[in-house]
Each structure stands twice: as structure tokens, then as C-alpha cells.
Design brief:
Helix content: 25-40%
Number of helices: 14
Largest sheet: 7 strands, mixed
Distance between the termini: 81 Å
Mean pLDDT: 96
Bound molecules: nicotinamide-adenine-dinucleotide
Strand content: 15-25%
Low-confidence stretches: none
Length: 500
Amino acid sequence: MTETIADIIRSMDMEPADFSQGNMDVFSPIDGKKMGSVREDTVPDLKAKIGASVEAFKRWRMIPAPRRGELIRLLGEELRKNKDALSALVTAECGKILEEGKGEVQEMIDICDYAVGVSRQLYGLTIASERPGHHMREYYQPLGPIGVISAFNFPVAVWSWNTALAVVCGDPVIWKPSEKTPMTAIACQKIFDRAVENFGDDAPANLSQILIGGRDVGEAMVDDSRMALISATGSTRMGRQVAPRVAERFGRCLLELGGNNAIIVTDSADIEMAIPGIVFGSVGTAGQRCTSTRRLIVHESVYDALVPRLKKAYEGLNIGNPLIDGTLVGPLIDEASFTAMEKALDAARAEGGLVTGGGRADGVEGGYYAKPAIAEMPSQTPSMCEETFAPILYIVKYSNWQDALDIHNAVPQGLSSAVITTDVREAEHFISPEGSDCGIANVNIGTSGAEIGGAFGGEKETGGGRESGSDAWKVYMRRQTSTVNYSRELPLAQGIKFDL
Ligand code: NAD
């Protein structure tokens, strides 16, 4: 493993010292061994970085947006050049299989392409004025320094979703990655710096900076009123701490928190198509995606056709080193995750569930490799309403469509959802106002994974934020309404007379 990390860093033409001479050790979930050590930032470091970000903002906001887009185009180019190496580093640091590591870096490239287009489309409105000789317009102006807090499971994509858009919107970024994945963040910073070098002098120094550390530096960033937006991705527990602190200073928050995603499999479902979607959704990234499928709500008439097939597919899963071709399930991030999974399975059993799988996978040493589990439940029990960040798929039966929808929506989270059906009424009802209450509602695909073009995020305890495509760019800008009088009179709105 040490050899691999050194190779990766060498292939990216980066300084090995940045990854080996710090006070914070980084361990790989693949074998539990030390990958390197990085320098941890302190609160005074953070304050200096925020000061530098404020200065960068003053210059960057005045650069025309399409020119700002050119920097993101160059970032996309650098990411293309480094795709294989960065994917391998993602895999080494967070444990997702290499194929998914590559998918994550591809998402970074996709958001860059998307943001380049957006840089020529930061449009406002013109609005009819009630006053003669007046124009009314709405502008979107750059917002200010953006603080990005990210989770371990998407160690690089979340930064790029935020940064590509923030930068074209005229904002600098300070990124606090997960303390579990700082090396990929350092690599991204170097890649960004190269794009800046190729871009030339229009880019101020410190347009994108990283803040290495844990909760304490994160909190200090959250509390600083110079940070115009805090975009925080992670657990609902973290969001509960961050949101009130930002609200206290009237800052802006974009929250991307935990999910508890379900698929409803109806009596008319195409079972052949359902199986790969369910299995990828529930065991992909070892169940450590915010969009992982955690609950399956199955019509009683197809239960016996579906569930034994799922169990069989689970038995055949190749669990092991995620750097090796053909592996489908890598390790959990750490021991605490494995313990949480075991505890959740005990709770499921205590609630009357029948559990298949769980425990440590055979024949893989080093990291915490868990056997993905299926828990057949008598009803939707309390433990099913929590997000356990591990590969547990809870299954419940239903007999009536409305019951399925009620079960689906009766959890506190609201990120991703899906229905597998060939009945157009059920499909359309699922995406109607009385259907799924989630930010993402799919038909005949799973819950996991999303395309860059759509807005990404969820409702309820998932936090309500939207990032990536559609009009998500607007959160990185401030809206300004402007009325211009081009007449020689001064009429007041609402016909008010004010004769002096
Ligand atoms: P986590 O909440 O433990 O940590 C996330 C980040 O928040 C880390 O960088 C951490 O240092 C920071 N943090 C924690 N407490 C903080 C505080 N009080 N102030 C400031 N920063 C703080 O999450 P994790 O274990 O890294 O990731 C898993 C969780 O993230 C899951 O719940 C998953 O669903 C969620 N997630 C959500 C999305 C989404 O888009 N909705 C995407 C990825 C992950």
C-alpha cells in the first residue's frame, strides 16, 4: 500500500513531503495501515485563510464570468489528465472500489464542463415596472467566501460540485475535507493550483484553499461571519450543529445531510431489471453513499420472486481489496462503522427481523470488511428509521399501494427514492404531490447515483440544500433588485403623493 501511494503521488507529479511530513496521520481503510501524514491547520491558520479569501473575492468578483469559466475549463483539463491517479488515491483513502473512484472523478470533470456553460448563463430577470419611465431588473451578484465542509464518502466530488459553481459565480472557496480523507484534498488543491498557473494573472492568489483538521477548525469556520455561505455535507448530527450556528449570525447554509432511501417494488415490477438496481444501490460503496438503498418496500405478490434472488446475489458478491479489478464491495471506513453496523443488526433482530449476512467477510485481512446484510422485517421498525452508514438492506412487505407510500415517507430523512413498476399510474403517482417526499424521486432506476445536470439534495433531515445542476448556482450568488428611472419625473410606487 505504501508503495502504491508513493507511486500515485509520483505519477501526479506532486511533492511527496506534502503527504508525509505532517502531524496528522492518515490511515487507509483497505489495510488499516498508515498512508501518510499531513499538516493540520489551527484556528489562527484558518483566520489567516479567511482574510486571504476576502482579498481574493475583491478581485475575482470583478473578472467577467465567462473568463472565470475559463479557469474551470482548465481545472477540468487537469482533472482529465490526473483521472486515473486521483481515482486510485480516492480508493486508497476512502475504500470505495476503483470503478467508483473513477466515477467520482468523472463527476468532477462533468461539473467542470457544466459550470463552464453556466459561466455564460448567469442570468437575471427584467420585470415590468408600474412607474412610467422606469426599468426594473434582478441581478445575481457574487456572494463572497464559500466554506465547504465535506464527508469522507465522496472525498473529492463534493468539493468540485461546490467549487466549480462558486468560482464561476465569482466566489473564493475554503474547503474543510473530512479528517479521514485529507490526502485527496491536498491532491485536489495541487490540481487546482496548476489550473490557476495555466490561467494567468487574472486569478488572485488563494481563490481555493484547504483547511485540514477536524470539528474544531470546522466550527471556527462556521462561526466566522466573513464566510458568506457554508455548504456542509455530512451526517444529520453535524447539520444540527452547523445550521443554528450559521443562523445565529444570519449567514447562509446549504445542507446535504443523511439519507434513508427506499425503493418500492410493485406487483407489476420488472424483477430482472430491479435486481441489479437494488444490489448496486445497497452494497455499492459498501453502503456508504448518502443515496444508498437502505429500505425495500416489496409487494407481497412478488416478495418470493425477488427476495431469494437478492440473497443469492449477495452470496456471490466479491468482497475485498477495492484496488483489485473485479472487487464489488470494499471495506467500511473504520472500526466504528463496523460496530455501528453490528449494533444495527442486533437491533433489527430484537425487533423481530430475520437477518442474513453481516459480520466480517471471510478471507480479507486488515480493514473492516463487512458482509452486506439483508434484514427481513415484520414492519417498519424504529431502527429502520435511522441511517446506519453500512450495507444493510431492510425489507418489508406491503399489500396496498397507499400503505407502501406511507411507509416510504414515514422516516425523518428525505434524500433519494425510487419505484420499480410498469404501471404508469403508480409511476406518476409516485412523483406527484402526494407521492415521494424526497428531493430525488426515480422511476425504474435505483436510488443511488445522480447526474450532474439535475439539482442534487433532499428534504426533511437531509437538510433541504440543492447543489450541482439546474439553478443550484443561485445559492452561490446574492440577488439584487434594481429600479432605474430614465424619465424626468420622480413618481413614487403605489401612486403615493409626497408634495414638498
Ligand atoms: P460527519 O458528519 O461525521 O462529517 C462530515 C464533515 O463535517 C467532516 O468534515 C467533519 O469534520 C465535519 N464536522 C463534524 N462536525 C462538525 C461541526 N460541529 N462543525 C463543523 N464541521 C463539522 O459525516 P461522515 O461520517 O464524514 O459522512 C457520512 C455522512 O454524510 C452520512 O450521514 C451521509 O449520508 C452524509 N452524506 C450526505 C451527502 C448528501 O449529499 N446529502 C453526501 C455525502 C455524505
